[in-house]
Amino acid sequence: QVQLVESGGGSVQPGGSLRLSCAASRSISSFNAMGWYRQAPGKQRELVARVTNDDNTNYADSVKGRFFISRDNAKNTVYLQMNSLKPEDTAVYYCHAELQIFRQSPRYDYWGQGTQVTVSS
């Protein structure tokens, strides 16, 4: 089964930065998209950032201009650079991989275990 392992979470002050990493057990180029989701206490899991294997990116409105997703295919790793962090960014962040071999084929979703990000004074 596909494994996704997140790292880089921690506790920072408002205005600080963190870089999250997601290491995959399979070549990330084999997935049609990679992304980051987050879930705060009492809230529904939401999309933060997504990148396709043709380099199309999407960001949640709340993180545009502050967060940036990138990938290193040689290292099978996807990154999330988080700048100007706010207390509202506090959540568990999950790595996500999407696999759809053909346009009309079944879609498969894979998730990491999550890494905690806490932004507080």
Uncertain residue segments? none
Average pLDDT reading:
96
Instruction: Say how many strands there are.
Output: 11
* Oligomeric state of this protein: single chain
Would you mind describing this structure in some detail?
With 121 residues, the chain is mostly beta strands. It is 0% helix and 50% strand. The protein contains no helices and eleven strands. β7 and β8 (77-82) form a beta hairpin. The chain is globular and about 45 Å long. The model has no long low-confidence stretch (mean pLDDT 96).
In short:
With 121 residues, the chain is mostly beta strands. 0% of the residues lie in helices and 50% in strands.
Please give a handful of descriptors for the protein shown.
7-stranded mixed sheet; 4-stranded antiparallel sheet; mainly beta; 0% helix; 121 residues
Q: How is this fold's topology laid out?
A:
Elements: E1 4-7, E2 10-12, E3 18-24, E4 33-39, E5 46-52, E6 57-59, E7 67-72, E8 77-82, E9 91-99, E10 108-111, E11 115-119
Parallel strand pairs: 2-11
Antiparallel strand pairs: 1-3, 3-8, 4-5, 4-9, 5-6, 7-8, 9-10, 9-11
